[in-house]
Amino acid sequence: MAVGAPAVSICDQAAGSPQALGRRLRISLESGSYLTVVSLLSLGAAVLAAQPAPKAVPAAAYTETIPGSKVSFDMVAVPGGTFTMGSPASEAGRDADEGPQVEVTLKPFWIGKTEVTWDEFDQFAFVGNTGARTGDGGAGDSDAVSKPSRAYGDEAKGYGKGKMPALAMTQHAAMEYCRWLSQVTGKAYRLPTEAEWEYAARAGDTTARPATLEEQAWHAGNAKETPHIVGTKKPNAFGLYDMLGNVAEWTFDLYAENRYAQWAPKATQPVALPTDKRYPHPTRGGSFIEAADKLRFANRQASHEDWSQRDPQVPQSIYWHTDADHVGFRVARALDEQANLKGFKSKVIKESADR
Ligand SMILES: [Ca+2]
Ligand SMILES: [Ca+2]
């Protein structure tokens, strides 16, 4: 074993953890001579001492417990990288809004291992004592996060709560949940951007859908007309559950059919900031009400006025959809937040126009 090569590895691993360095050294101990190990240790120490503080440290997974509760959720570290967003014209069942494909580069971030559950969402909407329930319209101009108004009817739509995915909230409510979560945890949570969502869902897969879709996803063919407790199917290569299926997931962006034409051929950290309009926003991944062939990484579904069709209130709720039982979300958190997303909050208010 050459002394030089592993020393470079130590340098790489220095951006990781002491455990990673330990693993590297154990490998050296098993395969190298005593002298090599001593050389490695001194070289490694010299290299470490010479390095500036690591910046883009690969984030480590962690568990967040919502303060004031026993409710927790897991965050998975997603490495930065470049991927092809969207689908090729040859992909079966694809829609025009999935192209042209864009070469997207992203920085590392964390994303929820599962969809947000009712146990979690309830802490914001109904349980916690942070924020005042000021009625539908809340959000206003105060930094305090208002609790949602009560839903029209059962917010869980009869599917049950607990570890079931929270659903039928608006994109505004999902964004406000993230803002509340940021305030109570001190960490900047937000919705994943549409690009981050697709990158996380693909986890390196460049095809239309996982070869093992049946093992990974609840869809119309196996869900028996109900969402399921999160994380009960198999995860993807990043260790993320239910990216496809179960509930479809809100993303941060404002939807446009021609969005990718604006970004192509290459984009770094692309995001289309939402406005004060209620619609349209992209949801991703499909859900328990869609046939398996609709569950493709690149498939986009925009929110629509029909999702609040039966809401008799005037104006309609900005927190709950009466006719979108299929939509939920998961949270994300940037390792090094991009400037245009820092402190961004939903601008939707009860006077907001539909679009
Ligand atoms: Ca999902
Ligand atoms: Ca679509």
TrEMBL record:
Residues 74-332 form the Sulfatase-modifying factor enzyme-like domain. The keyword Membrane does not apply. Keywords: Kinase, Transferase. One of its GO terms (molecular function) is protein serine/threonine kinase activity. InterPro entries: CTDL_fold, Sulfatase_Mod_Factor_Kinase, SUMF_dom, SUMF_sf. Its EC number is 2.7.11.1. The keyword Hydrolase does not apply. Gene3D superfamilies: paralog of FGE (formylglycine-generating enzyme) (3.90.1580.10). Residues 133-152 are annotated as: Disordered. SUPFAM superfamilies: C-type lectin-like. This is Serine/threonine-protein kinase pkn1. It comes from Luteitalea pratensis. The gene is pkn1_4.
